[in-house]
Design a protein that fits this description.
Layout (H helix, E strand, L loop, with lengths): L1 H22 L3 E5 L11 E5 H23 L1 H33 L10
Antiparallel strand pairs: 1-2
Length: 114
């Protein structure tokens, strides 16, 4: 069921993106020299759809990286809680073993003989 919903959402987005890419095939000049627009020191001529795809890729990469760094405190808290749970689990196992051992060996005190 999830797969169907995923395709119902993904397919139209891919279709629209494909139409936009085909419609934006003309060449644009990318200049990285803000001071000399007529004769830039470095410029690229790329199709507009490549520029759009690069911008989307860079945005996804930066957004994912910033989100990952922003979740640092939650990952650290999860790590701490996981280690506590592991330690408590080990302690419970040790106590269970002690209880089994003490139940197996009766602890009867000798009464004084008069």
């Amino acid at each position: 069921m999830r797969r169907i919903f995923r395709w119902l959402i993904t397919f139209p987005i891919l279709l629209v993106a494909g139409f936009l890419l085909v419609a934006n095939r003309h060449i644009v000049d990318i200049s990285l020299d803000p001071f000399n627009a007529q004769d830039p020191a470095f410029s690229l001529e790329l199709p507009l759809y490549i520029v759009i795809l690069i911008a989307i890729f860079i945005g996804l990469l930066l957004g994912g990286t910033l989100t990952w760094f922003g979740q640092h405190k939650y990952r650290r808290a999860s790590r701490v809680e996981r280690s506590k749970a592991h330690r408590w689990h080990n302690e419970a196992d040790d106590l269970r073993k002690r209880a089994e051992q003490s139940a197996a060996t009766p602890n009867v005190k000798q009464l004084p003989q008069n």
